[in-house]
Amino acid sequence: LFKFRPETQISTREKFVTELKTLKYLPCVKDQRLIVRGPSITDPASKSKGFQHALVGYHDDQVALDMYQASPEHARVTSQYFIPYKKDLVRFDFETDLGGEDLLGFSTSSHDA
User: Fold this and answer.
1) Residue 57 and residue 34 in contact, taking contact as beta carbons nearer than 8 Å
2) Where in this chain does the record put each Stress-response A/B barrel domain (predicted)?
3) Can you tell me the distance from the alpha carbon of 14 to that of 30, in angstroms, rounded to the nearest whole number?
4) Span 4-23, pLDDT tens digits
5) What is the DSSP string of 22-64?
6) pLDDT tens digits for 37-76?
7) Structural domain contains residue 109
8) Which domain holds residue 72?
9) Sign of CA dihedral 71, 2, 38, 81
10) First CA to last CA across the chain, in angstroms?
11) Are 68 and 74 in contact (CB under 8 A)?
12) Alpha carbon distance 109, 43 (integer Å)
């Protein structure tokens, strides 16, 4: 979850989202499954605690997640388009089984063979 400082221009936030979406092409992202959305439409807005954008990414394992976090591309996007405008950030990594991916409409049949 990403929270920008209030004075951050909308165009800057939109550029950040656009650039984040390019990270789905990194080989450490499983089947290009990287979802970036925002701004938040939570009502009332206070329930989202000011966080405006979210990212959900899929990786085969912890090694792939670590590769994503350490990639030069990730560093470029975050250092150029988020860190200078950052108010707060929440990172919550978790593991799921293949069945959990069905909840988001990802077919797991090719992985269940």
Assistant:
1) yes
2) 1-94
3) 24
4) 999 999 999 999 999 999 99
5) GGGGSTTSGGG-EEEE-S---SSGGGGTT--BEEEE--SSHHH
6) 999 999 998 999 999 999 999 999 999 999 999 999 999 9
7) no
8) 2-93
9) negative
10) 35
11) yes
12) 37
